[in-house]
Amino acid sequence: xxxxxxxxxxxxxxxxxxxxxxxxxxxxxxxxxxxxxxxxxxxxxxxxxxxxxxxxxxxxxxxxxxxxxxxxxxxxxxx
Length: 79
Prior knowledge:
There is one protein chain. Helix content is 62%, strand content 0%. By secondary structure, it is mostly helical. It has a single domain, classed as Non-ribosomal Peptide Synthetase Peptidyl Carrier Protein, Chain A, CATH 1.10.1200.10. The model has no long low-confidence stretch (mean pLDDT 94). It holds the Pfam family PP-binding. Belongs to the acyl carrier protein (ACP) family. GO terms for molecular function: acyl binding; acyl carrier activity.
């Protein structure tokens, strides 16, 4: 699965969970600043992503942007 595939799937999940237009979500998009996501929103997004990719995301990871999340998921899939 390529970075683009991971980004597309993650973008779709974020747009659905946070009720946002997918076109505004880029790798540079910050969850809190750009999407007004609180910690519960981020938890729900991460939960859906863990299910979608069948991975575990460490809660200690500093994931602030969509790009951070894409990089983390891509590394987990490669491991």
